[in-house]
Design brief:
This protein is an alpha+beta fold. It has one domain: Metallo-beta-lactamase, Chain A. It is 24% helix and 31% strand. It has nine helices and 17 strands. Strand 1 and strand 2 form a beta hairpin. It is globular and about 55 Å long. It binds zinc ion. The site of zinc ion has 5 residues, from helix 4.
Length: 288
């Protein structure tokens, strides 16, 4: 096992990176209601999550191998160039190749939610035509997100249009599978509805041989939120529900001591939720 992979019982999890970027929206605008002073303790504790007045954010994905199945969780920003983030291009497919994974091996693409930084590599362009980037996969996401992101007023508020390219194309190809409740992807891998960030947001709980890990999706987008669970970001759709879900998830993983995987924290996003005299905090890694 390298430091980018993790074994949970019989399940292997490999961390993947689509990119690491300085997010263009300045900090107080990204987390409305916070000011520079609020962030100071976290600048000291998590220095590699800041770039001046901006957040330095990882766009991570995870590959799971469970009982002969290969599941990719989230597909990053995609091939781009993505103008709203400075023309950047995602590198997920290169990272998969570097780790010896062929796109053909992936039988399930599980999408935690339908934001642009989680659906980008659903498709690739070949000779001017969109084709599935993972041709042997079914693409699974929550029905509530499909309904939500199809609403014209929701589409109008997106930083850039991506639904037709990255989601509707997959629906039209007959590869999209909508689920509407907690669902076992394999006997060891369970998708859990954790709404708030989006209406159909889901996390993934891995349980095997008495061990567990939670891939939390965007319940938490910055490690400071482990301590400041009521800080919502502008991309959280329903703030009270986002906070409620965040509290519940944090209580649960802390009480059970479950390792947590966070796609937007510095790669590989592995850590645990711990407590000191001040409160809860994100502890990077699983080491002693
Ligand atoms: Zn995200």
């Amino acid at each position: 096992m390298s430091d980018l992979s993790l074994r949970v019982g019989n399940v292997e999890i490999v961390a993947l990176s689509d990119m690491n970027l300085t997010f263009p929206t300045p900090l107080p605008d990204l987390f409305p209601g916070t000011d520079a002073g609020d962030w100071q303790p976290y600048r000291e504790r998590y220095p590699d999550t800041f770039d001046g007045e901006h957040v330095q954010i990882e766009i991570g994905c995870y590959l799971l191998r469970s009982g002969g199945r290969t599941i990719l969780i989230d597909t990053g920003y995609g091939e781009g160039p993505i103008e709203s983030i400075g023309g950047r291009r995602g590198e997920l497919m290169d990272d998969l190749a570097a780790k010896g994974v062929s796109p053909d091996e992936v039988d399930t693409v599980f999408i935690s939610h339908l934001h642009s930084d989680h659906v980008g590599w659903n498709v690739v362009e070949r000779n001017g035509e969109l084709v599935p980037a993972f041709p042997n996969a079914r693409y699974v996401a929550h029905q509530a997100d499909l309904d939500h992101f199809r609403r014209p007023e929701v589409q109008a508020a997106l930083p850039f249009p991506f639904m037709d390219r990255c989601v509707e194309s997959i629906v039209e190809m007959g590869l999209f599978e909508a689920i509407s409740e907690d669902t076992d992807l394999t006997p060891e891998v369970r998708a859990l509805h954790t709404p708030g960030h989006t209406p159909g947001h889901m996390s993934v709980l891995v349980r095997s041989q008495g061990e567990s890990a939670l891939i939390q999706g965007d319940v938490l987008v910055h490690p400071a939120q482990v301590t400041e669970a009521n800080w919502n970001c502008i991309f959280d759709y329903d703030w009270p529900l986002s906070t409620e879900t965040r509290m519940k998830v944090l209580e649960d993983v802390e009480a059970k001591g479950i390792p947590v995987l966070s796609c937007h924290f510095p790669a590989p996003g592995f850590g645990t939720v711990e407590r000191n005299e001040v409160g809860r905090y994100w502890r990077v890694g699983f080491g002693p």
